[in-house]
Design a protein that fits this description.
- With 55 residues, the chain is mainly alpha-helical.
- It is built from two helices and no strands.
- It is elongated, with a radius of gyration of 13 Å.
- The protein starts with a helix and ends with a helix.
Length: 55
């Protein structure tokens, strides 16, 4: 059974990949923007959500 924390991490990881694909194909933004999107959506947001649920 997968824990709720892992579900959040996997969900946001998949969302980050989908957004990365959209940003890379539909826009002409610089590469650093794509990297920032992946870091924010795939790493920072899940940590904030998981930490707020523990307290």
């Amino acid at each position: 059974m997968v824990s709720r924390e892992n579900q959040v991490i996997i969900g946001f990881g998949l969302l980050a990949l989908f957004i990365l694909y959209l940003v890379a194909t539909l826009t002409t933004l610089p590469t650093w923007v794509s990297i920032a999107v992946v870091i924010v959506v795939g790493v920072i947001v899940p940590q904030v959500i998981n930490n707020s649920r523990r307290e």
